[in-house]
Design goal:
Layout (H helix, E strand, L loop, with lengths): L4 E6 L2 H9 L8 E7 L2 E7 L1 H5 L8 H7 L4 E4 L4 H12 L7 E4 L3 E5 L10 H15 L3 E6 L2 H10 L4 E2 L5 H5 L11 H9 L13 H8 L1 H11 L16 E10 L2 H21 L2 E12 L4 E12 L2 H8 L12 E13 L17 H14 L7 E3 L9 E3 L20 E12 L9 E4 L2 E14 L11 E8 L4 E7 L9 E7 L2
Parallel strand pairs: 2-4, 7-8
Antiparallel strand pairs: 1-6, 1-7, 2-3, 5-6, 9-12, 10-11, 10-12, 13-14, 15-16, 15-20, 16-17, 17-18, 18-19, 19-20
Helix pairs in contact: 6-10, 9-10, 11-12
Length: 500
């Protein structure tokens, strides 16, 4: 398939933009001006002003003499680049590859895209109509090369479509300026009577290079397709992206769900064939008014399970506001990983942390409450209970030590022990009652004490005598007395955990 490019020339980009902001200006000749060496010089003009002889580069005072009713506004530096970038982002609807072309144009790589609109003619017509509705006056052309499309858009017939392989014939009648040459080269060509490309296209390359420099050969080869022209799109193309353009805008929730299902099926099938799985995924909805609606999901492990991914998106779909309609759906997987099939053991009931059901459950929970709401803890080699565990860096992190199972430990451990009021016999008996958060608990059963010494190599501190106790309601707690028993001082008691 040969490459096909579309060049869009915004003839009056900045004045059109001011007219969009102030519709009344469309009826008057309008120019933009900026100071230059103590004078106000015209930097842009609309079609009405040009029709009356006012052009870029003229002094504003002279132009007002020529056109007494001339409207003028101060130009805004950098506005052209901002406008073109925003327009390029909106034109992602027509192709994933859109590039800003100088200060007054866009380049679209339309390869394989036009058939979605019924053909190249309908493709250009749709683009032209949309830009006119937005308020911009443009000229459009399509060709095999960027250089040829640029030349025809500015110097050829409006909305021209150059058939594949015919760019050389289309360029013959155009002036040298159509090759995007520097002004001094163009002037030299015209002084020598070479006022059309046909006059020098067949000349020996060595003669052209010697007389006009390498730039002429370079631009000519680009326009003819002998040399590849590289441009940077406004949005880098991700390797795993699927697009679904709509001939009619989608406004219903059912239509959005169908679009997502189709994109997921296509993307996941591609990932399956390449033995990859996605970790993050974006669902983008481009509305007719240019607004972008975006949803994002993430997974704990690479996956290409379309049904599971749809369930992750499903709770977020109601947040999409179609408004006047969505004309393009895009599914993007910016982060992917290698994913080989896992051989499950027939004689085991589960695969532990690699169990697909567990991982999918965690994905659904994470997309509802956030990844920070799900944590995995690993044992750490410390005697002090609050230091005996740490948060895992990931779900797949391997154990470096084992959990201690020789001593009973509570299911819920407080981050910091909390003080309690205790009634206890002495010296080493468990407490009879304790008060925690204004609730009095009478102890019916108790085990202990279990003495845990302070880790002197980390910090100095008193020992702890722990008791596992059960109150009158059958609730079990983990309490400790701080320090050695002494009749001379009152002892501090703390609650440190809760058993199941």
């Amino acid at each position: 398939m040969s490459k096909r490019y579309v060049s869009i020339w915004f003839r009056h980009l900045r004045t059109d933009w001011f007219s969009i902001l102030q519709p009344a200006l469309k009826q008057f000749p309008l120019v933009l001006s900026s100071p230059d060496h103590g004078r106000m010089v015209i930097t842009a003009s609309n079609a009405l002003a040009e029709a009356q002889g006012v052009f870029t580069g003229m002094v504003l005072a002279d132009a007002r003499v020529i056109v007494p009713g001339l409207h003028f506004l101060d130009d805004q530096p950098g506005i052209a680049a901002t406008l073109l970038t925003k327009l390029a982002e909106r034109f992602i609807v027509y192709t994933p590859w859109v590039s800003v072309d100088g200060s007054d144009g866009l380049i679209l790589d339309a390869t394989g895209c036009a058939h979605l609109w019924g053909g190249e003619k309908e493709y250009l017509t749709h683009i032209n109509i949309r830009l006119k509705r937005l308020g911009y006056s443009v000229r459009i052309a399509m060709a095999d090369t960027i250089g040829a499309a640029w030349a025809i858009a500015r110097f050829g017939e409006p909305a021209s479509i150059i058939e594949p392989g015919e760019q050389a014939n289309a360029l013959l009648s155009l002036p040298p300026a159509a090759l995007r040459l520097q002004s001094d080269i163009t002037e030299r060509l015209e002084k020598l009577g070479l006022r059309q490309i046909r006059n020098f296209i067949s000349m020996p390359r060595s003669a052209l290079r010697r007389r006009f420099g390498e730039d002429l050969i370079h631009k000519l080869d680009q326009a003819l397709g002998y040399e590849i022209e590289i441009r940077e799109p406004v949005q880098p193309i991700q390797p795993y992206v699927e697009r679904l353009p709509c001939l009619e805008p989608i406004v219903t929730a059912t239509g959005i769900e169908i679009a997502l299902e189709r994109l997921l099926a296509t993307l996941c099938n591609r990932l399956l064939q390449e033995e990859k799985g996605l970790r993050t995924c974006y669902f983008k909805c481009y509305r007719v008014d240019g607004n972008l609606q975006k949803l994002e999901i993430g997974t704990h492990r690479a996956t290409h399970h379309a049904t599971h991914l749809f369930k992750l998106f499903e709770p977020k779909l109601p947040s999409i506001e179609p408004d006047l309609g969505i004309e393009l759906f895009v599914l993007e997987a910016p982060k992917t990983e290698e994913l080989s099939p896992i051989q499950e053991k027939l004689w085991e009931g589960s695969c532990g942390l690699n169990d697909s059901g567990l991982l999918e459950l965690m994905d659904r929970l994470a997309n509802k409450i956030g990844t920070q709401g799900i944590r995995r803890f690993l044992p750490d080699e410390h005697h002090w209970p609050e230091r005996s565990y740490r948060t895992a860096l990931s779900l797949q992190e391997k154990l470096t030590t084992t959990w201690r199972t020789d001593k009973l430990r509570p299911m819920q451990l407080l981050a910091r022990p909390e003080p309690i009021e205790v009634t206890a016999p002495i010296p080493d008996y468990p407490p009879m009652t304790f008060r925690y958060k204004n609730n009095l608990h009478t102890i019916k059963k108790a085990d202990g004490p279990e003495r845990i010494e302070s880790e002197w190599w980390l910090e100095e501190g008193p020992l702890r005598d722990y008791y596992a106790v059960e109150d009158q309601d059958g609730q079990r707690y983990w309490l400790f007395r701080l320090g050695h028993f002494s009749e001379a001082k009152a002892h501090k008691w703390f609650i440190h955990g809760f058993f199941a």
